């Protein structure tokens, strides 16, 4: 989020916050930065992964610190006359995340450390091989 806005709200770099909307809330860690509109909260898309999915270990960063915005986004646009419309991009059908109003609240002491909601780890399907200890693809490869 905007450094100026965060500091004005008493939020420091790497603080944990609740991102709340009328539909729900998620908990994540803040990065303060320049170049973000003070009234905009920006996030990476789809970085939250459930432990066990994609063979992620329970302590993988994606499982502990990543989060999705699905819990704060309504699936429907506000009611109007005529058919009810999905809150989706009309071209791609993907969720329309660009028009969501949220409140940011600093986490209380003891609430920091892991994202929320935080589902339990998935169990691997039967006969799956053990996941590798290190998931690294082409690490160290030199480009020609």
Description:
- The protein has two helices and three strands, in the order H-E-E-H-E.
- It is low in regular secondary structure and 144 residues long.
- The chain has one domain (1-121): Barwin-like endoglucanases.
- Strands 2-1-3 form a three-stranded antiparallel beta sheet, with no helix packed on it.
- The longest helix is centred in the N-terminal third of the chain and has 6 residues, at 3-8.
- It is globular and about 50 Å long.
Shape: globular
Helical residue percent band = under 10%
How many domain modules? Answer: 1
- In the CATH scheme, what's the topology name? Barwin-like endoglucanases
Tell me which CATH architecture applies here: Beta Barrel
Describe what is shown at a glance:
This protein has 144 residues and is mostly loops. The protein contains two helices and three strands.
Protein traits:
little secondary structure, Barwin-like endoglucanases, three-stranded antiparallel beta sheet, 2 helices, 3 strands
Describe the secondary structure blueprint for this structure.
Blueprint: H1 3-8, E1 16-20, E2 25-29, H2 61-64, E3 103-106
Antiparallel strand pairs: 1-2, 1-3
């Amino acid at each position: 989020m905007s450094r100026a806005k965060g500091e004005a709200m008493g939020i420091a770099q790497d603080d944990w916050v609740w991102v709340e909307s009328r539909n729900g809330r998620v908990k994540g860690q803040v990065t303060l930065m320049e170049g973000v509109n003070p009234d905009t909260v920006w996030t990476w898309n789809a970085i939250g992964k459930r432990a066990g999915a994609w063979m992620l270990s329970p302590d993988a960063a994606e499982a502990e610190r990543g989060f999705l915005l699905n819990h704060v986004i309504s699936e429907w646009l506000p009611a109007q006359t005529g058919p009810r419309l999905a809150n989706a991009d009309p071209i791609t059908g993907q969720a329309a995340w660009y028009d969501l109003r949220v409140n940011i609240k600093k986490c209380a002491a003891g609430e920091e450390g892991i994202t929320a909601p935080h589902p339990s780890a998935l169990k691997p399907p039967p006969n799956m091989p053990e996941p590798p200890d290190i998931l690294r693809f082409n690490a160290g490869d030199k480009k020609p």
